[in-house]
């Protein structure tokens, strides 16, 4: 018997038992690998509690996917763990109200998401980068120099543009007196104000296309509501 071959085969078998195959790794709805227990916990929390068509888990998942696309397009090295945590936690105050209700929601996330991430098992040495991304994610914010904050800022901004931007904002109409006409006015402002604030070259290209798409939708909407008289 060739004991060297037996030994190598035994090591191979043990390695297969110790490490899950790619097929064993769970994935999100859009295919993000949940390759760490903390990601499973955070995603499960988002799916169960962050359930709104404008601000819910779907928005967070799009932010992650687009942020990673922007990083690749601009050649930016980002930590996927940081992008994942910030993407799914940045709007948490829409569902878990901040103790200080006057606090800006990105600042609130940066203050209060730590406990949730720590309990889930997130590597907290990376948490300062998550906080920077949460604080700087809005289109009107300065994300600072960290690459994760830059790509999340641009990804979140792009989600206000195009058909998805229209769908998100219209989903908010009827809440707390928000009107359909006011949503359209806000969307026109987004199409004007957001593209110049995008930072990455990849986001600028996508943003120009989405702004054009959004304006075309709004112009058609004006026509179909009789010059916006019965909107």
Q: Which key phrases capture this entry?
A:
231 residues; mainly alpha; 2 domains; disordered N terminus
Tally of strands = 2
Please count the helical segments. 10
Poorly predicted segments? 1-22
Q: Within the largest sheet, what's the order of strands?
A: 1-2
Strand residues, percent = under 5%
The value of Rg in angstroms is 21 Å
Alpha-beta content class: mainly alpha
Query: What is the terminal-to-terminal distance?
Result: 83 Å
Gist?
This protein is mainly alpha-helical and about 230 residues long. Helices cover about 60% and strands about 0% of the residues.
Describe the overall structure.
The protein is an all-alpha fold and 231 residues long. The protein has ten helices and two strands. A two-stranded antiparallel ribbon has the order 1-2.
Outline the fold blueprint.
Elements: H1 3-18, E1 26-27, E2 33-34, H2 37-49, H3 57-74, H4 80-89, H5 105-120, H6 127-135, H7 147-158, H8 162-170, H9 180-193, H10 201-224
Antiparallel strand pairs: 1-2
């Amino acid at each position: 018997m060739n004991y060297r071959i037996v030994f190598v085969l035994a090591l191979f078998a043990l390695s297969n038992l110790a490490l899950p195959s790619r097929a064993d790794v769970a994935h999100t709805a859009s295919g993000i690998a949940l390759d760490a227990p903390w990601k499973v916990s955070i995603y499960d929390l988002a799916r169960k509690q962050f359930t709104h068509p404008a601000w819910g888990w779907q928005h967070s998942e799009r932010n992650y996917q687009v942020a990673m696309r922007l990083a690749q397009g601009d050649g930016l090295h980002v930590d996927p763990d940081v992008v994942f945590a910030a993407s799914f936690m940045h709007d948490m105050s829409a569902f878990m109200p901040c103790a200080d209700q006057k606090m800006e929601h990105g600042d609130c996330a940066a203050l209060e998401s730590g406990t949730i991430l720590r309990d889930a098992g997130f590597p907290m040495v990376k948490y300062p980068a998550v906080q920077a991304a949460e604080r700087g994610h809005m289109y009107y914010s300065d994300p600072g120099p960290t690459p994760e904050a830059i790509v999340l800022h641009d990804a979140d901004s792009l989600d206000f543009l195009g058909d998805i931007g229209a769908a998100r904002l219209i989903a908010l109409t009827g809440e707390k007196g928000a009107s359909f006409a006011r949503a359209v006015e806000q969307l026109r402002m987004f199409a004007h104000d957001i593209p110049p604030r995008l930072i990455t070259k990849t986001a600028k290209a996508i943003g120009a296309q989405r702004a054009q798409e959004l304006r075309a939708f709004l112009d058609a909407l004006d026509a179909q509501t009789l010059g916006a008289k019965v909107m």
